[in-house]
């Protein structure tokens, strides 16, 4: 055999992994230069940090230090560092998430490959790299992919801690989770049960010793997680920005409220507005969530049953016993399950405040369990075991559900999705061939033939998520220019000596784009949702007299009550009434264009209100 062929055979896994990482680079980076400022809210915060670096510690929304954003600072510090290095561009703010996404693909390979082998690791890496919600979130201005990378790294270190019986590595793992908490708060704790289980079940020694180590680790986690919060709350309120969306001007209020309780409390409007469906067991197979996350969910869940006792398939309680839970395989399997399954229950049944892209947080354990499950189901298929039928069942059921979902897509692009339907039908046919090989009298499944057929069948299931991810990248058009020269020219020319370009009810609206486009801070009177009570009527004359702010955008009285309330008008109604009573309405011809984000608003000039 030629030396080149020998090298290819020897390093086939490394070459394949390089190809998968190359695919991840393409999906995450292609057309990124068209992205623009995908999230103006966080972009405005990064701009504020660059403009006024001493304020960066507080995570300000504006460079004048009026209010902070609704998240902790670590993720935005990374974005600010990228912008400082490459310039304040939209792609520079997204680049940290892109790199975190690519790094996460490599990490999931490392986590799966060691206990379950290279094929399982490669499948897991490929699945993660092509999961649509993971790809789209990698290309967003939110910090979720940074969080995902750090918690994946924490799990990898925890598994290493179990293998090495190392308390110090366990503490490092918890430090990483604490850092992740300071990227997106409570979302980081999704991996904590998995880390605890890894150390508890994967190390030797007395239970008392293990629990004492875990207690110390939890204390370290709490100390790192709350370090920034306690430091900020220790600063007198009049010497720092107002803590946005906290309700009480404290980071602890932000942790327990907007980034804590609101993830669980009932909000009837959230799921209706954001397309995340009705709470219930079938929520994740509703169209909007399925096409982003759930293409292969059934494949992962059915694959878990392969770990059931082969002689007592129907007895679920034997799952842990047959998987040798104290081995490296067992603790990895349990860790991924403890990361994925509780989160699936939460996303399926919660009435709380969440968005579809939050599902990217559980894409890594989903990918890992698919990689493990496919390889183990195929291994059992070649053996005389009842669980050998799981591979056939998993492929057929997953394919049928994909075909069912395609009925909604067909009308938009029948050519592409017609081809996908044909491929899925081919996958089902291959599954039938696999079944026939098992039941054909007097024969055992041929390893080579079965490998080819099973490989084709599984690959047909992967086509849809790959296409879905690829189309979202390839079809991306240049971001629309949010700059309105008429409005911004008017405000800049008339606000030369004021601290703020203008004031808006909430940063949820167009104020962030105004700030990013002009480079001048915009005052969000009520913070992100408009519900923060930062100002009082008594302060208004002084703000105008001191030229802190001159112009206010307000909704007219004939605007629907729901729209006004959604922007916090109930909490700050007295302030807006003061502006309407004391300030002058600016004629539309001076500043307004139709069909813009601010077309519903009136502009008031308060120059003479003091």
Largest sheet strand order:
3-5-4
Strand content: under 5%
Count every beta strand, where a strand is a DSSP E run of 2 or more residues. 5
Largest sheet: 3 strands, antiparallel
Secondary-structure content class: mainly alpha
What does this structure look like?
The protein has 610 residues and is mostly helical. The protein is 60% helix and 2% strand. It contains 27 helices and five strands. The chain has helices at residues 3-10, 12-29, 40-51, 74-86, 90-116, 118-130, 132-138, 144-164, 167-184, 192-202, 207-233, 251-256, 270-274, 287-294, 297-304, 319-322, 328-349, 363-381, 390-409, 414-439, 447-474, 485-494, 511-518, 540-545, 561-566, 573-582, 588-591; strands at 503-504, 523-524, 551-554, 584-585, 602-605. A three-stranded antiparallel β-sheet has the order 3-5-4, with helices on one face. A two-stranded parallel ribbon has the order 1-2. Mean pLDDT is 87; it is low at 268-273 and 309-325.
What are the salient characteristics of this protein?
mainly alpha, 60% helix, three-stranded antiparallel beta sheet, 610 residues
List the helices and strands and how they pair.
Blueprint: H1 3-10, H2 12-29, H3 40-51, H4 74-86, H5 90-116, H6 118-130, H7 132-138, H8 144-164, H9 167-184, H10 192-202, H11 207-233, H12 251-256, H13 270-274, H14 287-294, H15 297-304, H16 319-322, H17 328-349, H18 363-381, H19 390-409, H20 414-439, H21 447-474, H22 485-494, E1 503-504, H23 511-518, E2 523-524, H24 540-545, E3 551-554, H25 561-566, H26 573-582, E4 584-585, H27 588-591, E5 602-605
Parallel strand pairs: 1-2
Antiparallel strand pairs: 3-5, 4-5
Helix pairs in contact: 2-5, 2-6, 3-4, 3-23, 4-5, 5-6, 5-7, 5-8, 5-18, 6-18, 7-21, 8-9, 8-10, 9-11, 10-17, 15-18, 15-19, 17-18, 19-20, 19-21, 20-21
């Amino acid at each position: 055999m030629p030396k080149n062929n020998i090298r290819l055979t020897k390093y086939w896994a490394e070459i394949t992994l390089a190809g998968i990482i190359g695919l991840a680079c393409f999906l995450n980076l292609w057309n990124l230069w068209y992205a623009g400022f995908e999230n103006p809210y966080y972009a405005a915060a990064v701009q504020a940090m660059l403009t006024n670096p001493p304020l960066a510690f507080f995570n300000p929304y504006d460079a004048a230090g009026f209010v902070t954003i609704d998240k902790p600072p670590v993720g935005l510090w990374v974005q600010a560092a990228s912008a400082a290095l490459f310039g304040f561009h939209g792609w520079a703010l997204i680049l940290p998430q892109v790199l975190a996404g690519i790094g996460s693909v490599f990490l999931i390979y490392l986590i799966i490959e060691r206990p379950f082998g290279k094929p399982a690791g490669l499948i897991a890496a490929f699945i993660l790299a092509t999961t649509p919600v993971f790809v789209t979130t990698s290309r967003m201005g939110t910090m979720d992919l940074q969080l995902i990378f750090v918690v994946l790294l924490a799990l990898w270190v925890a598994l290493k801690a179990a293998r090495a019986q190392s308390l110090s590595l366990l503490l490092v793992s918890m430090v990483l989770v604490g850092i992740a908490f300071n990227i997106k708060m409570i979302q980081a704790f999704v991996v904590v049960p998995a880390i605890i289980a890894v150390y508890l079940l994967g190390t030797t020694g007395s239970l008392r010793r293990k629990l004492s180590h875990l207690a110390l680790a939890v204390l370290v986690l709490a100390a790192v997680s709350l370090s920034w919060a306690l430091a900020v709350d220790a600063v007198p309120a009049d010497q720092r920005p107002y803590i946005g969306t906290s309700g009480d001007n404290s980071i602890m209020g932000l942790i327990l409220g907007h980034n804590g309780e609101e993830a669980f409390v009932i909000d009837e409007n959230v799921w209706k507005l954001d397309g995340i469906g009705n709470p219930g067991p079938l929520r994740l197979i509703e169209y909007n969530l399925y096409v982003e996350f759930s293409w292969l969910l059934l494949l992962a869940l059915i694959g878990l049953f392969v770990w059931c006792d082969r002689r007592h398939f129907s007895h679920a309680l034997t799952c842990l016993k047959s998987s040798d839970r104290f081995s490296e395989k067992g603790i990895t399997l349990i860790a991924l399950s403890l990361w994925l399954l509780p989160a699936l229950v939460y996303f399926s049944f919660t009435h709380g405040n969440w968005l579809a892209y939050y599902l990217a947080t559980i894409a890594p354990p989903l990918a890992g369990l698919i990689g493990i499950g496919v390889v183990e189901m195929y291994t059992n298929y070649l053996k005389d075991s009842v669980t050998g039928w799981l591979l056939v069942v998993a492929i057929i059921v997953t394919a049928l559900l994909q075909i069912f979902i395609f009925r909604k897509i067909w009308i938009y692009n029948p050519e592409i999705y017609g081809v996908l339907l044909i491929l899925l039908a081919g996958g089902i046919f291959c599954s039938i061939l696999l079944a026939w090989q098992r039941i054909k009298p007097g024969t055992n499944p041929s390893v080579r033939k079965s490998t080819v057929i099973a490989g084709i069948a599984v690959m047909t299931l992967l086509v849809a998520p790959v296409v879905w991810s690829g189309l979202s990248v390839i079809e991306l058009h240049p971001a629309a220019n949010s700059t309105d020269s008429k409005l911004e020219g008017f405000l800049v020319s008339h606000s030369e000596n004021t601290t703020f370009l203008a004031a808006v009810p909430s940063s949820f609206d167009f104020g962030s784009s105004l700030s990013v486009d002009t480079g001048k801070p915009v005052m969000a009177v009520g913070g992100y949702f408009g519900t923060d009570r930062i100002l009082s009527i008594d302060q208004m004359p002084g703000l105008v007299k001191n030229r802190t702010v001159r112009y206010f955008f307000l909704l007219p009285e004939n605007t629907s009550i729901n729209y006004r309330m959604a922007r916090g008008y109930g909490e700050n109604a007295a302030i807006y009434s003061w502006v309407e009573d004391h300030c002058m309405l600016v004629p539309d011809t001076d500043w307004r264009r139709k069909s813009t984000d601010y077309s519903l608003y009136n502009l008031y000039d308060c120059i003479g209100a003091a």
